[in-house]
Design a protein that fits this description.
- The protein is α/β, with parallel strands linked by helices and about 525 residues long.
- About 40% of the residues lie in helices and about 20% in strands.
- It is built from 19 helices and 23 strands.
- The protein has a seven-stranded mixed beta sheet with strand order 17-18-16-15-21-22-23, with helices on both faces. Strands 1, 2, 3, 6, 13 and 14 form a six-stranded mixed beta sheet that branches. The chain has a two-stranded antiparallel sheet with strand order 4-5.
- Strand 1 and strand 2 form a beta hairpin.
- Helix 14 packs across helix 15 (about 440-450), helix 14 (about 395-420) packs across helix 18 and helix 15 crosses helix 18 (about 505-520).
- It is globular, with a radius of gyration of 22 Å.
- The relative contact order is 0.12.
- The model has no long low-confidence stretch (mean pLDDT about 95).
- The protein binds adenosine-5'-diphosphate and 5-O-phosphono-L-ribulose.
- One of its GO terms (molecular function) is ribulokinase activity.
- InterPro entries: ATPase_NBD, FGGY_C, FGGY_Carb_Kinase, FGGY_N.
- Its EC number is 2.7.1.16.
- Belongs to the FGGY kinase family.
Length: about 525
């Protein structure tokens, strides 16, 4: 589309907006009906560790959404000389799971407990046994049941719980709904009925410590919707919440709110059975769409769904890029001392490119990037740790490669369970996430660490917000009965710009040596949790 055509599309509202609330950034993108991004905005935020809980204040949720929207609207005005007043469809996506309990009158009953918390182990042990289905610590039902077990005062006032995307969607549209992918991280889904698992709902409701409360779990959970279903419209109040300038009018169609797992699947076109993708940002999680049930229950493999409700095996590691950021900040401060003001993209590029000169085994250096506890390696709290021996080859190149290996190590260890015990493998994984903003290096290290070809698309560093914008467009543009898979293959990914990197034999061997040292040293990391108190 040329500038005149885009301006006309904006005037007519033939555009779709995607907003994703990720762990480190809120991003908004506007796409035309050919799925090209024509404008964007973002807001940087960071979780806080307050009173033993990882959280974000809800006021900052709105500050971030409004700032991202404001930048996007200014981008539209600057490039296309149009004021953004009408948006065809809107989708909200966010980090999944966690705990946002509300009272009947809409009051938040506890600060937001995010996916990053490892505070629900007793609840997950009990529920996993009850359902014979893996309940990870970060899931909404684990948080709710842990609050029950803790006998927290607020529990009897609960009227509704939701995820972050569900909360924002509710405020914009008045609808208490979730896309099925996001819902699958709240409570287990039954793939056959594309809804919460009835048997598990009943079992949960029958628990003695749950029966005490007047609420019913069925009424407390949001309603489940499939991709493409109508999830309400933007209300006048919602329009004001999104666009503080008041230019935006009400009435946009709303897509079912999704989790960043689902939007990652869309952004990498990984909805069909046996396709695989991986998201690498604050956390790292790989996802394979299943064509058969798993042979057995694994505590390291989570079953979620695609936005159209197919089961997906997910390996989720809580820690990926946060420690890279912490070290990058140290290098930035050092550069600052030398009078050099390093902007983030330049900083990451300079560091990552250094890793190209590293020894394949990263010189024997070891790093545990655990800002928070790590489920895969059974480390209960965050103690970032860098260890080396006197003979390790301590160079900047090896240090940076160590950081990248360490970012991918937990997910690699978890994925070995899927490969070795379930024989579930994909020929290639399509990856997305902020680490690919600097091309090649992180992609190659990931391919070597996982010993799997990694494909990255042009949109990889903006995968999530673009994915939810595509889901919004699907509500508006799909032909009757057109499946999401066909919509993606036929309309969205006609000609994707991709780059695939294969594992390099030397790199694979080096990564394996790193992982061996990493696993051998895990006892030291666990001892750090035990001995070094906050
Ligand atoms: N220019 C860059 N090159 C490489 N990595 C980057 C760059 N900018 C940011 N990053 C990394 O990307 C991460 C954010 O990735 P993203 O997928 O947006 O994650 P999240 O959803 O967790 O916020 C940052 O925390 C940082 O580690
Ligand atoms: O928990 C999940 C997926 O199951 C994610 O929402 C969570 O790890 C947050 O992802 P990001 O690190 O923000 O990409």
């Amino acid at each position: 589309m040329n500038l005149v055509e885009i301006s006309q599309a904006i005037k007519d509202g033939r555009v779709s907006l995607g907003i994703e609330l990720g762990s480190t950034q809120i991003k908004a993108v506007l796409v035309t009906d050919d799925f090209n991004t024509i404008a964007s905005g973002s807001y940087v935020w960071e979780n806080q560790y307050k009173d033993g809980v990882w959280t974000y204040p809800l006021e900052q949720v709105w500050e971030g959404i409004q700032e991202s929207y404001k930048q996007l609207a200014a981008d539209v005005k600057g490039k296309y000389h149009e004021t953004l007043t009408k948006i065809g469809a809107i989708g909200i996506s966010a980090m999944m799971h966690g705990y946002l309990p509300f009272s009947e009158d809409g009051k938040l009953l506890t600060p937001f407990r995010t996916w990053r918390n490892n505070i629900t182990e007793p609840a997950t042990d009990k529920l996993t046994e009850l359902f014979n289905f893996n309940i990870p610590q970060r899931w909404c039902i684990a948080h709710l049941y842990q609050a029950v077990l803790n006998k927290e005062e607020h529990v009897d006032q609960i009227s509704f719980i939701t995820t972050l995307a569900g909360y924002v969607h509710w405020k914009l549209s008045g609808e208490k709904v979730l896309g099925i992918g996001d819902a699958s991280g709240a409570f287990p889904i039954d793939e056959a009925i594309k809804n919460y698992n009835e048997q598990y709902l009943a079992a949960f409701g029958q628990l003695d410590d749950v029966k005490k409360y007047s609420w019913d779990i069925r009424a407390v959970l949001p309603k489940v919707l499939l991709a493409g279903e109508n999830a309400g419209t933007l209300t006048a109040q919602g329009a004001k919440l999104l666009d503080a300038s008041g230019n935006l009018t009400a009435g946009s169609m709303m897509a079912p709110p999704e989790g960043d797992a689902g939007t990652g699947m869309v952004a990498t076109n990984s909805i069909r059975k046996r396709t695989g993708n991986i998201s690498v940002g604050t956390s790292a999680f790989s996802m394979v769409v299943l064509d058969r049930p798993l042979k057995q229950l694994h505590r390291d493999i989570d079953i979620v769904t695609t936005p159209d409700g197919s089961n997906v095996a997910m390996v989720h590691a809580n820690n990926c890029s946060s420690d890279i950021n912490a070290w990058a900040e140290i290098f930035k401060q050092f550069a600052g001392r030398l009078g050099i003001d390093l902007q983030p993209d330049k900083l990451y590029e300079a560091l990552f490119l250094t890793a190209a000169k590293a020894q394949p085994d990263a010189g024997g250096l070891i790093n545990y990037s655990y800002l928070s506890g790590e489920n895969i390696t059974k480390v209960t709290a965050g103690r970032p740790l860098f260890v080396r021996t006197a003979n390790s080859k301590f160079s900047l190149a090896n240090f940076v490669l160590t950081q990248l290996y360490a970012a991918f190590a937990p997910v690699k260890i978890g994925m070995d369970v899927l490969t070795n015990e379930e024989q579930i493998n994909t020929e290639v994984l399509v990856a997305q996430g902020g680490l690919f903003k600097t091309p090649i290096i992180a992609q190659q290290v990931l391919a070597n660490t996982l010993d799997t070809p990694i494909t990255v698309m042009k949109t990889a560093s903006q995968g999530g917000p673009w994915g939810i914008a595509v889901l919004a467009a699907y509500v508006r543009l799909a032909d009757k009965n057109e499946s999401l898979e066909d919509f993606l293959d036929g309309k969205v990914f006609e000609n994707p710009e991709t780059l695939t990197l294969n594992p390099e034999p030397m790199g694979v061997k080096g990564a394996q040596e790193f992982i061996k040292n990493y696993q051998d040293g895990l006892a030291v990391e666990r001892m750090a949790v035990d001995k070094i108190k906050e």
